[in-house]
């Protein structure tokens, strides 16, 4: 039997009923091959469930349940547009919604554990709908990724346990059907749901491709391939036709939104190419990552990360910032789940550009305030230009208030605000 195809469809590709029909059409183009289809939550459902987490963290449980009701209605509308007899699928979704509603009444969960328990239901709901719809066209089975992707218990950023995951995938997948699985999620050995990090569905695709020894992984996007910048932000972007693994890893590290940072490493290890293709024009070539030494074409790459904060720390006695200070700071960041995107230290000051998580950052500041004098600049952004030319730098930073700059021969980064 031929090696299964591994496809990944993100939230934008399954945002409404027409999008789900389009996914079914794409799958129909490859009906002769066994297949694993990794699917994200529909549209902005993950964001909506994160709002539920916020309400839960503030003990605003009635507001949380109202939001859960809105999420249910959003999915029910899609179901009614897709199915002539929607009751069975609605029943499956209602059961999952009930699980979330019951879960938010629990007071024994840490923030990270509650986040993963609540948010992972978005993928469960979307795949129930999509598996049922595809199943009308071709033999399909809904698989529970919590039984397939085994992880540790680092909630919100779980690490895959590769041996156990490989065994589970080989034992549970049905090689004769389209296997619809959830992206972004997994479970601990005791069955507690975990997530692999925000936008982690791409990584899930890589996990399945690696464990199956697949010929390739295809990620379906709303762009014609990998561009050298987000076309919603940067002008005159260009499609990259071919890209080496190492260059893709660098771009993902700096935050290129089209690739999850962990996605490339398992593919590189087994030499599995990654195809980035358009679900709007599925027969177009797209971008292939892997199998080349140089990018085609060779162009600068532009990455903008919003919702950042610049945290500056000084020792209270103005002593030098030395290794034991940095070690303690980073250990706190690890424990609290702080994501550091840029760091610079001088003799008496350490500066960190971090994701401005509204729940995590205040608790981190409270931990640091006894040992350091703090300054937090919120609402900053981080611009990264890789393989830059001087004219790129001048054009993209014109009119910005630069707070921190860092450069190497290949990469220049600017932390800035627009005030």
Quaternary arrangement of the chains shown? single chain
Kindly report the spatial arrangement of strands forming the biggest sheet: 3-4-2-1-7-11-12-10
- Overall 3D form: globular
CATH fold annotation of the largest domain? Carbamate kinase
Architecture overview:
Strand 14 (340-345) and strand 15 (349-355) form a beta hairpin. This protein is 38% helix and 24% strand. An eight-stranded mixed β-sheet has the order 3-4-2-1-7-11-12-10, with helices on both faces. It is globular. With 419 residues, it is of the alpha/beta class. The protein folds into two domains: 5-215, Acetylglutamate kinase-like (Carbamate kinase, 3-Layer(aba) Sandwich); 301-417, VC0802-like, CATH 3.30.2130.10.
How would you concisely characterize the structure shown here?
The chain is an alpha/beta fold and 419 residues long.
Relevant terms:
419 residues; alpha/beta; Carbamate kinase; VC0802-like; 2 domains; 8-stranded mixed beta sheet; 6-stranded antiparallel beta sheet; globular
Topology (SSEs and partners):
Layout lengths: L4 E5 L7 H12 L6 E5 L5 H13 L3 H22 L4 H17 L7 H9 L1 H14 L5 E3 L19 H11 L5 E5 L2 E3 L5 E3 L5 H12 L4 E5 L4 E2 L11 E2 L1 E2 L1 H10 L9 H7 L3 E5 L8 E3 L11 E15 L7 H14 L3 E6 L3 E7 L4 H9 L3 E15 L3 H8 L3 E7 L3 E7 L2
Parallel strand pairs: 1-2, 1-7, 2-4, 3-4, 7-11, 10-12
Antiparallel strand pairs: 5-6, 8-9, 11-12, 13-15, 13-16, 14-15, 16-18, 17-18
Helix pairs in contact: 1-3, 2-3, 2-5, 3-4, 4-6, 7-8, 8-10, 11-12
């Amino acid at each position: 039997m031929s090696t299964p195809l591994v496809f990944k469809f993100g939230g934008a590709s399954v945002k409404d009923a027409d999008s789900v029909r389009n996914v079914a059409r794409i799958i129909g183009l490859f009906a002769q091959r066994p297949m694993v289809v990794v699917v994200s939550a529909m549209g902005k459902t993950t964001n909506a469930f994160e709002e539920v987490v916020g309400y839960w963290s503030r003990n605003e449980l009635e507001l949380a349940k109202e939001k859960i009701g809105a999420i249910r209605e959003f999915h029910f509308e899609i179901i009614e547009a897709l199915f002539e007899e929607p009751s069975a699928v609605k029943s499956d979704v209602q059961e999952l919604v009930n699980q979330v509603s019951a879960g938010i009444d629990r007071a024994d969960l840490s923030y990270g554990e509650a986040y993963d328990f609540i948010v992972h239901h978005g993928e469960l709901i979307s795949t129930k709908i999509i598996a049922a719809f595809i199943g009308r066209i071709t033999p399909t089975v809904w698989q529970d990724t919590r039984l397939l992707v085994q992880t540790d218990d680092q909630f919100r950023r779980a690490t895959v346990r590769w041996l156990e995951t490989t065994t589970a995938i080989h034992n549970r997948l049905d090689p004769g059907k389209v296997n619809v699985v959830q992206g972004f999620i997994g479970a601990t050995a005791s069955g507690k749901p975990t997530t692999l990090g925000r936008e982690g569905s791409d990584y899930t695709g890589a996990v399945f491709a690696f464990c199956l020894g697949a010929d390739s992984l295809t990620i379906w996007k709303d762009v014609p391939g990998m561009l050298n910048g987000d076309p919603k932000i940067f002008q005159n972007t260009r499609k990259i036709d071919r890209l080496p693994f190492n260059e893709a890893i660098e771009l993902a590290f700096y935050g290129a939104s089209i690739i999850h940072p962990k996605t490339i490493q398992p593919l590189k290890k087994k030499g599995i190419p990654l195809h980035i293709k358009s679900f709007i024009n599925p027969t177009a070539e797209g971008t292939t990552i892997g199998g080349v030494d140089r990018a085609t074409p060779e162009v600068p790459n532009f990455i903008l990360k919003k919702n950042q904060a610049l945290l500056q720390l000084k020792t209270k006695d103005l002593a030098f910032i030395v290794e034991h200070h940095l070690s303690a700071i980073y250990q706190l960041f690890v424990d609290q789940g702080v994501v550091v995107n840029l760091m610079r230290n001088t003799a008496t000051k350490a500066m960190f550009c971090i994701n401005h998580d509204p729940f995590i950052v205040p608790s981190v500041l409270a931990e640091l305030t006894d040992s350091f004098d703090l300054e937090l600049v919120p609402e900053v952004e981080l611009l990264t230009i890789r393989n830059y030319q001087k004219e790129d730098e001048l054009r993209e930073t014109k009119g910005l208030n630069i707070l921190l700059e860092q450069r190497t021969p290949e990469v220049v980064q600017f932390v800035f605000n627009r005030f």
